[in-house]
């Protein structure tokens, strides 16, 4: 047969299966997003629409790929951690990386108009790239996320200071940069407080700490509204109903939240150089997640001390209406679940903006991520 | 500084630079497109909207990445060939593969509504995956594309026969499959002609031969309309004009073309087992490319004998208004070219549906692809 | 300069650094050793000279490369386990594998005549190949060595039965193979006992269990004779003394030892299918290690029950006169240590033939192998 | 079966097959040979025994592995080029690299005493490491060998000058190095001539140009003495004759040869910066190959102009008594050929010391190396 004459070219394909029984971390990054955010007038230093869109796209990835344990996003990047024992695509690197990047990109463009409601689609197609990194032990996994969140802290404090100097202080970008050159975190904090009446530690945690996606138990009495409508199964399904309804945006909520800066109680330690103490100094304030598609309302929790106990109190939060049962893993993406079945669902994707630097997270809500997997998975 | 404490995790990243001075082939594939095409009522066996959208997305990739020499698409897959000397992202595999996949996916969702005009966006975000394969020599490159086009021939002939039996012949899918089991190409051709009055060789070449994207000279007197508006530079640029105009669709043209099947002149040899002779038997018929965004009209060329000479006759075709000069490569994606500058442009991305099996193509229009690169590139 | 004109070819070299913080296992195998052993009239089923030469070569490897924690040898193969944190040659795979293979091969040829005393050198140069495998966790490391030792058990029981049938029973090889076909371990054990008066479990442990090289404490009062003279530092050092003295061989001892098979006390369970129970059934008998170069005398330990306590009793065994201090690691191969310094030495390479299947070993003498490494090594 | 319980650890092995249809270059390097050569009182700047031993070991490698087209050696390194289509060990990188390194090392120790006749074996086992590099095209292959030979030129000229200053000039090593610092090739040439009466271009070509191993036709009337006795087949074969005879060494010949330096005719251009012109300036002088094992005498060819035609003149040279027929490739290492069969043999391994910088070699004796391989090999 003629086909076989050429088919030898397949033999040039190489096997790129990744080492077994190590964590697989896929990180995606926006390409040329400095230009992209400028072209679309992203608010500075943070555009809540852009961040929420990133988070929505990441949730889609996590919804589709059940072996992702946790994801963390900041700026134009997102990191996804797969469990050690994942056998997704037989651990083929190109397949996994390209699927994550494609899914994320697809969702970003797909949901664009739900967040940027005045623009049908971006001015041009945005692009992300990605790569996989293997981490053998829990130590590196913790340190990886600490590395990214430390980066968030540093960048956001700099950007907040920079744009305060430029937009409120009237400095040129060059002058602002010169002003900040050589300053440490404490000095930037003080400058923001004394010159711009801004208590940095009271700014939305989403800006200061990035976004963490976790797989957690969803309270049985959660509102149906809490369901994030993701891929096909949450759509009405009838082919006649081909127009996807775009819920009204509620971005104004955010603005309110981001301006709830109050008097600085204490200038506090540098959140980066003293990440552990920050957690106890209680300056982190979760913001309202205004997710127009999800119709999710996460109550602003102003009482910092109750932050860690929220999950036990059944408060609303962003959740993903999938249950991560073993069967689902086998079944793959998107069975046909109905929103009305929500009551029986157990686990979903939850978004929060908390400290993942330090042991507190990993012994608490993050414990399931680094828990040993069953031996039988190894000796399959 | 706190950051450095964690930064060691970067050292777990591995170097995935691909071997130098070999062709890099990136192939992307739709994930679950059987389901995707069913969910969106794609026409069987070929949906011209879907194919055109694929082609448009591929053109975006080729527009952005100047080192791609040729691309070939069929069904839900597309192959992109980078020149041997490409140093894109220092030849890092993950970076190249993920960028191609992301860009393709992004464009597919972005331009969806321009082709599927009755649906704002797909029912759910489509996903592609990708991989890179290295080919050291011209022999393998030719055979690779022959392999893919042979696949197109085989699949399309089968699908055309299958759906004729099902949709026109009233057979069940199972019965249709049984009927076709064990038949060769000639038998399928004859069945289509005698039972369904279909001369397979007169069906649109885009269906039978897939789509080939080439970098070719664009005639100086080409209509301004021939410019394919791709990424930012072709947009008006004013931030106030944020709504992208969607040109009126002209999909009806296609339907007309696809029905221009006429009397079977000769049943002819199996196009796969005799790929060379097919080129001379002249049964290939280019179809009208109805590309609503591009506003491109490619005249149906019914005279098969003139097929190879078209490029010298200045006929309109799909072109991409970029010139692939050395400067552009350095400049990277998307400078600020104006459509009015088109006259001085020399090269663009041209789409056609021709035989790439056999030497004829590679000594003709494809000669630049396998031409030796300058030695200095090697010894850089 | 002219040189630089060609030096670009170096850029085709690829980075083959192995993932950090995982165990590196290098296994070497003899090439064509079936033929090699036949050409040199190796005794069947085991040639003590050949095994001792393998063990000697392995000790040389372990002596030179301090990051090797444990080695295991059987037949014509040897496995070397590097600690997770090794940074030998920056973990470059080719460098590590080729060095281990070269060192082993070199020592095998170098010490040949010390074991095969009637032949100056082999009839032709023997060859080994090698490969590296990464193991992320202690579970796999244990299972890897269990896998190799189970292989030893199975092969040696088969070979012992086979050669008994051929050499003592007078069967043709073909008939012997047919006779053994389909038999399990228990049946082979019984056949050996009833037909050939051989209690398999009393055969030398070196044959049944392979050889384990460990880094262990050497008693301070150990005889100077216990030092294994390995690479340059143990040589007199004076360049005039260029002739390496070859100690008188004591291979006759072995023959005696290998014939000390006595009455079968219990046929016992299959040592492979019941590896744990075997350890308690006490059928393992260490053999005299007759190592002519090493001048080592390891007392035959006939009392199986005292096997595990030997190390505390100061009995002589094969040891390697190096101390694996941190300085040594930094200094690299072969400083200039004097045999007279032996008294202050702490650790050396010890050889034994014990069960490494089962937890007993790993919680006892092997505990240091899987002990967690200090965190600072990770975050270097 | 118990075995399978552990066998999963095999799945951690990775596929390291190298890209097809590209040249595979394996380069081995001595480890710590500065120390090794000092410990064994190697003559400076070149020790003919050491070089001949290297060459002998390399010939063994080339004898065993028929897919090696050419090898080049200098100092303590050797490069082996495999043909593009080699399928040795399915192109597994570790297997190929480790086999080459092991075979080379084995032969180096094995034949040691034939070259270093006053020392039964080295003072300690020597070690080599190795790596593979892929080269897609002929251009890189030529440039690779040019790179290595340019390195030989530069190093040997420096070393010759350095040791002349130290051993004849009485300078300290430090002073000699200072004296040479910043000098170019021409200055070193002049210094050697005026101060040490040494015409560098008349020194043995083996020192100045390294050693090239080629597969070439062996004249039918070649002396039986010309056969290099390598691996088992050339041994008497009878197991009783287990002592390998060591032919009388003729190393004194070398000394004579190396002192045949005569009056400098022309200082000439720098052989490195002007590699092409050197070939025509005729300063290369092949040396007598005194190979005690091979009993080969290659006549010194003082007439430079006849250098290229020697192969047609039936002069004696080092040859390897193997024929590289297709059957041999399949049969693998070492069938049982008899020395008496030599007359019918066609091809062997020839050693020479010629320019491989420049096109002259590659269009002449080296043409077979870069000749295109048959297409069918590709489309296997």
Ordered list of secondary-structure elements with their pairings:
The structure is a homotetramer of 380-residue chains.
Chain A: H1 2-7, E1 23-30, H2 33-39, H3 48-64, E2 68-74, E3 77-82, H4 93-110, H5 112-115, E4 128-135, H6 138-168, H7 173-180, H8 185-196, H9 205-209, E5 211-217, H10 251-258, H11 275-281, H12 326-331, E6 347-352, H13 359-363, H14 367-370, H15 375-378
Antiparallel strand pairs in A: 1-3, 1-4, 2-3, 2-5, 5-6
Helix pairs in contact in A: 3-4, 6-7, 6-8
Task: Give a written overview of the molecule.
Chains A, B, C, D: Residues 250-263 have a biased composition (Low complexity). Chains A, B, C, D: Residues 230-285, 300-340 are annotated as: Disordered. Chains A, B, C, D: This is tRNA(His) guanylyltransferase. Chains A, B, C, D: Belongs to the tRNA(His) guanylyltransferase family. Chains A, B, C, D: InterPro entries: Thg1_C_dom, tRNAHis_GuaTrfase_cat, tRNAHis_GuaTrfase_Thg1, tRNAHis_GuaTrfase_Thg1_sf. 4 copies of one chain form a homotetramer. Chain A is of the alpha+beta class and 380 residues long. Chain A has a single domain, classed as tRNA(His) guanylyltransferase (Thg1) (Alpha-Beta Plaits, 2-Layer Sandwich), CATH 3.30.70. Helices cover 37% and strands 11% of the residues of chain A. Chain A has 15 helices and 6 strands. Chain A has helices at residues 2-7, 33-39, 48-64, 93-110, 112-115, 138-168, 173-180, 185-196, 205-209, 251-258, 275-281, 326-331, 359-363, 367-370, 375-378, and strands at residues 23-30, 68-74, 77-82, 128-135, 211-217, 347-352. A 6-stranded antiparallel β-sheet of chain A has the order 4-1-3-2-5-6, sandwiched between helices. In chain A, helix 3 (48-64) crosses helix 4 (93-110), helix 6 crosses helix 7 and helix 6 (138-168) runs parallel beside helix 8 (185-196). The longest helix of chain A is centred in the middle third of the chain and has 31 residues, at 138-168. The first copy, chain A, is globular, with a radius of gyration of 22 Å. In chain A, 48% of the residues are buried. The model of chain A is unreliable at 223-346 (pLDDT under 50). The interface between C and D is large, with 75 and 77 residues.
């Amino acid at each position: 047969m003629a086909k076989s004459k050429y088919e030898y070219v397949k033999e040039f394909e190489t096997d790129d299966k990744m080492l077994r029984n190590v964590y697989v971390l896929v990180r995606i990054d926006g390409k040329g997003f400095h230009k992209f955010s400028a072209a679309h007038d992203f608010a500075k230093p943070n555009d809540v629409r852009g961040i929420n869109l990133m988070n929505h796209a990441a949730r889609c990835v996590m919804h589709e790929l059940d072996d992702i344990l946790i994801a963390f996003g900041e700026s134009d990047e997102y990191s996804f951690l797969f469990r050690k024992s994942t056998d997704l695509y037989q651990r083929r690197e190109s397949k996994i990386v390209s699927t994550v990047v494609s899914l994320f990109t697809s969702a970003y463009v797909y949901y664009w108009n739900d967040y940027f409601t005045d623009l049908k689609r971006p001015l041009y197609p945005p692009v992300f790239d990605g790569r996989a990194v293997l981490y053998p032990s829990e130590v590196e996994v913790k340190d990886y996320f600490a590395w990214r969140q430390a980066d968030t802290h540093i960048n956001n404090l700099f950007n907040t200071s920079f744009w305060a100097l430029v937009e409120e202080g009237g400095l040129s970008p060059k002058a602002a940069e010169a002003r900040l050159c050589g300053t440490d975190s404490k000095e930037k904090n003080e400058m923001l407080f004394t010159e711009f009446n801004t208590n940095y530690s009271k700014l939305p945690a989403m800006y200061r700490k990035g976004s963490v996606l976790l797989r957690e138990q969803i309270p049985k009495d959660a509102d149906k509204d809490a369901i994030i409508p993701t891929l096909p199964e949450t759509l009405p399904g009838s082919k006649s109903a081909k127009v996807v309804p775009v819920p009204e945006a509620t971005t104004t909520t955010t603005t309110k939240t981001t301006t709830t800066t109050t008097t600085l109680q204490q200038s506090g330690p540098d959140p980066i150089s003293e990440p552990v103490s920050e957690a106890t100094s209680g300056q982190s304030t979760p913001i309202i997640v205004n997710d127009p598609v999800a119709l999710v309302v996460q109550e602003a929790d102003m009482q910092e001390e109750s932050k860690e106990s929220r999950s036990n109190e059944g408060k609303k939060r962003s959740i993903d209406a999938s249950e991560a049962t073993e069967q689902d893993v086998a079944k793959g993406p998107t069975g046909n679940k109905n929103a009305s079945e929500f009551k029986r669902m157990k686990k979903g994707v939850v978004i929060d903006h908390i400290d993942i630097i330090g042991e507190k997270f990993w012994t608490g809500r993050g414990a399931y991520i680094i828990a040993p997997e069953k031996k039988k998975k190894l000796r399959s």
